[in-house]
Amino acid sequence: MSELTHSKDYIVIKALDDGVQVIGLTRGTDTRFHHAEKLDKGEIMIAQFTEHTSAVKIRGKVVIQSSYGEMRNDQD
Ligand code: TRP
């Protein structure tokens, strides 16, 4: 990511249920959980990827908006 310590893009996560978890995974050789944010229905998290966070795991029903488009995981 050149000299930037975080991406300029944000992802928007909207919880469609109570108890959604947004879990941040560490960057580097060691890939582990470093943060779990709990969202209740209707709550929104706006997040970036940073020097600490390389991946995000989401548990529960959400709508996500990113530069890749909008996706939701509430329909099989
Ligand atoms: N302190 C974390 C970081 O700078 C905060 C964070 C950024 C985060 N993006 C995230 C936590 C995504 C969970 C999910 O990396």
UniProtKB/TrEMBL annotation:
Task: Please state every residue range assigned to the domain named Tryptophan RNA-binding attenuator protein.
Answer: 7-73
Annotated Gene Ontology MF terms? RNA binding
Keyword annotations for this protein?
Answer: RNA-binding, Transcription, Transcription regulation
Task: Give an example GO biological process.
Answer: regulation of DNA-templated transcription
Protein name listed in UniProt = Transcription attenuation protein MtrB
The organism of origin for this protein:
Aquibacillus salsiterrae
How would you summarize the oligomeric state and partners of this protein?
Oligomer of 11 identical subunits arranged in doughnut-like structure.
Q: What does this protein do?
A: Required for transcription attenuation control in the Trp operon. This trans-acting factor seems to recognize a 10 bases nucleotide sequence in the Trp leader transcript causing transcription termination. Binds the leader RNA only in presence of L-tryptophan.
Family from the record = Belongs to the MtrB family.
What gene, per UniProt, encodes this protein? Answer: mtrB
